[in-house]
Please model this.
Amino acid sequence: MPATDNQPFPLAELAAISDARYAWVALLLTPLAAGGQHDPDAAQGVQADHPFQAALTLLKTPGAFDLLAPLDIVVPVTAPARLELAQLSSLPVNRVLLRVPAAACADPAAQKKLSAVADAGFRIMIEGVTAGPIATLCGARALMMDAALHLPPVVALAGQPGPHLASHMRSEARLQVCAQAGFSWFTGDFATNPERHGDGDNGSAGDGTTRKRLLALLGLLARDADTHELELLLKQDPSLSYHLLKLVNSAAFALSSPVHSFSQAINVLGRRQLQRWLQLLLYARQQDDGLPNPLLPLAAVRAAQMEALVALQGGDRDRQDMAFVTGVFSLLDVLLGMDMTEIVAALSLDLDVVMALLDRAGPLGDLLKLLDGGAQADAQRRLALADAGIDAAAFWQTQLQAHQWALQVSRSL
Model:
């Protein structure tokens, strides 16, 4: 799909927005600025409307909203005074929130434009705290704020119906503090900074006994062990066994009669699918507080996108499987609370997978760095994509497909 105005097809990050129980409810769309860093939230300057125009290009991709359903999309509007309702005509009003920097809302022209957009049914989310009645004048109903260290005044949250989004959540504990303060949506790297609760025999991934069992199972999967060996180990792990049977009996497989045994489950899934689902099921176990593990959909996104990228490169089925493994295993150090070198040493993995996991080296490592994102500027990422033989529009399509699959996985598990 060509970009508008002869500009390169935009690159963007999709960050998950969760509720207080870690279920995904929306995605924060952040296009990368042409200069390299994420575009600032200033309302002035020649590039001020770049994020919004880039977001429009991305979201006009055929089927984009279908692939990301039912999630809402938070779209950046850095220059609201220039916003025209006609620009939003292709966007579903019930799926889009327009994210506007608080500083831009002081402009009466911006207030008038935003109020008209709100009257048309679009939701306005102000990033930052505005003074006086500015939020009301803009027709805003939601607040977004970096709440890593500080909370907004109570009146700022109470004055709008929400949903209010707390960004930069670096721990589950901070997320819960913000939930008590009135936020209901959360984004940040809290999922990859889990809080360990000791080594008691509580079935958590941090438990020494369970950790050894998981590594043993991963080892069996890596060497393509026979069904009997897998079945024996599965029987020792009630949580994993439960999730496997729940998966096979889910609507995703539409079986005529329920499956009650591991051997049946293995036969229904087939060896290849069994390996893939078990690798993801490692992330499905509940935490000590009974909440689902927020790492699960992240691992699913990485696995699916790695596979899709290798497919774009013309990789065969075996190569795609290696890419899938690389993606799903790239968060095992977080899940197990172990150094990745220890994990790799316990498994029989292909050298390309080992290089990618340990050093982000080799062809799979280069693709994994693309998924790590964050520190990579726009120009760096474009160069990496060119080296990999993948264009920006195709990369965006893999992002959409990977998030769709992660949503399906979360529903099935």
Observations:
- The chain has two domains: 4-192, 208-413.
- The radius of gyration is 23 Å.
